[in-house]
Amino acid sequence: MNQHARLSVAPMMDWTDRHCRYLHRLMSREVLLYTEMVTSPALVRGGALHLLAHNTAEHPVALQLGGSDPTELAQAARIGADHGYDEINLNVGCPSDRVQSGCFGAVLMERPALVADCCAAMIAAQSAEVTVKCRIGVDDQDPQQVLPAFLETVAATGVKRFTIHARKAWLKGLSPKENRDIPPLDYDLVRAMKLQFPDLHLSVNGGIETLDQARAFLDAGLDGVMIGRAAYHNPSAILLAADPVIFGTGTARVAQEVVYDMLPYIDAHLASGGRLQQITRHMMGLFTGRPGARQWRRILSENAHADGAGNDVVLRALDAVMQAGSAT
Known about the structure:
This protein is α/β, with parallel strands linked by helices. It is 45% helix and 13% strand. An 8-stranded parallel beta sheet has the order 1-8-7-6-5-4-3-2. α3 runs parallel beside α5 (112-125). The N and C termini lie far apart (42 Å). The relative contact order is 0.12.
């Protein structure tokens, strides 16, 4: 898992669902994939096991949990491991109001001892590796003091792998969207943490948009890079060449081939009562920056939601891309 974590796609609410992850896995065999955040109350008290549905082809895939009750998180981690997830990740970075009101996410940066209790309980409850995704601090905290103390406290429980979003989260005054862009990035602090904690596997997250940037962080000594929005909106630029560029294996894939490989998956989804748009909404960015990208998006967005829409829509959109490419 440490090797796969050299490059990962961030857990993103409403985006990294099972259809998105299947698409991303077709683009890279090596990249570590994450679920959307699933709250421990939803699993333990709500019985929402449908949130854990995934295809075996997605592996390696990690389940991200949100919560702050050690006993409940332990139960949720056990459920996740029983469903076959390769890693259980604790969210200590999300700044949304809903997360704050539930006392989990980024607000837990203020409670490292509680995070440690949660991680210890999750580790004891099941066999999958427990990891943490965190911020460098919140609100008026001094990241230079808070982050190393947080890592030391949580690592003492046996957590060896952390992903650090290199921005503060402002719980008061900024929206979740603003928290993704406005607080300044402090990559130097994350690099300093690797020097201070050489035995920990540390990945950096936040503002990374290209494989060249990812490669530079790895060459500088960090263990991994997590990419979020860029991997979703322009997956071809990040994932198609990830295996040879980041992992030194295989060859770069081609977007058109990925579309063809998606067709059997789409057929199976439709046969089970699903709708085309549930899958194609994640495919909109496949041809970003290429001739025909606009036609691809237009055909899918205008037709995928219709009753009875199927692979004919996808193939029509792909044909528009191919024609635009041959005309240039």
